[in-house]
């Protein structure tokens, strides 16, 4: 994953205009969330999805590899008196989450940045409950007004192929705005 951080990153992550092309409420509505859900947000950043998820689920574990992002989110959790969101420092392929703890593992704009998809997805499989799902939101593989270079992006089919190679089963593919897709996969039945 990219390890660059500065004030510009936070400004981009928190830009209110971002909701016009990546609406967290609409995307979270596509997932089967309830008050018992344990939601693990991989690459949570400043909490763009983790904060709204906390209003819908029992517990949010918000993981990021950057100390600055974890600290920013921790400050928001404290100032908002949010009791069910826990920001955690993680590695790219090692998550401080117990085996089988997650109902939903969520990645937004992270998949294209992973250095080793197989390692990261093995770790996702470890933390998912037997009936859990992995939800991947990422940039469509086409030119857009913003986002990573097209060559760095994965198409929906590329993501599905990698997920299947790592043992996941496709549940659905959906539009997640004009520039993004949502791929939902599950663990195979035991």
How does this structure look, described?
The chain has 190 residues and is α/β, with parallel strands linked by helices. The chain has a single domain, classed as Vaccinia Virus protein VP39 (Rossmann fold). The chain has helices spanning 7-13, 24-29, 50-54, 67-79, 117-127, 156-165, and strands spanning 38-42, 59-64, 85-89, 102-108, 128-139, 169-175, 180-186. Strands 3-2-1-4-5-7-6 form a 7-stranded mixed sheet, with helices on both faces. Residues 1-11 have low confidence and may be disordered.
Shape, principal axes of CA atoms: globular
Instruction: Identify the CATH homologous superfamily.
Output: Vaccinia Virus protein VP39
Number of strands: 7
Q: Based on the structure given, which CATH architecture is correct?
A: 3-Layer(aba) Sandwich
Secondary-structure element pattern, one letter each: HHEHEHEEHEHEE
Count of DSSP-assigned helices: 6
CATH level 1 class label: Alpha Beta
Instruction: For the record, give the distance between the C-alpha atoms at the N and C termini, rounded to a whole number.
Output: 31 Å
CATH topology: Rossmann fold
Unreliable parts? 1-11
Give the class from helix and strand content and strand pairing: alpha/beta
In what range is the share of β-strand residues?
A: 25-35%
């Amino acid at each position: 994953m990219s390890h660059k951080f500065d004030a510009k990153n936070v400004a981009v992550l928190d830009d209110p205009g971002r909701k016009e092309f990546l609406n967290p409420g609409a995307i979270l509505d596509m997932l089967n969330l309830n008050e018992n859900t344990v939601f693990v947000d991989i690459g949570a950043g400043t909490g763009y999805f983790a904060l709204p998820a906390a209003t819908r689920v029992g517990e949010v574990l918000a993981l990021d590899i950057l100390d600055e992002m974890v600290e920013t989110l921790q400050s928001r959790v404290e100032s908002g008196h949010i009791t069910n969101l826990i920001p955690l420092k993680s590695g790219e392929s090692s998550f401080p989450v117990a085996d089988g703890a997650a109902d939903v593992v969520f990645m937004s704009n992270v998949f294209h940045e992973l250095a080793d998809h197989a390692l990261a997805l093995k770790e996702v499989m470890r933390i998912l409950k037997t009936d859990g799902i992995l939800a991947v939101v990422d940039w469509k593989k086409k030119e857009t007004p913003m986002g990573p270079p097209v060559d760095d992006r994965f198409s929906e089919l590329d993501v599905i192929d990698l997920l299947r190679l790592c043992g996941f089963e496709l549940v659905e593919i959906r539009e997640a705005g004009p520039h993004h897709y949502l791929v939902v996969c599950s663990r195979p039945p035991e």
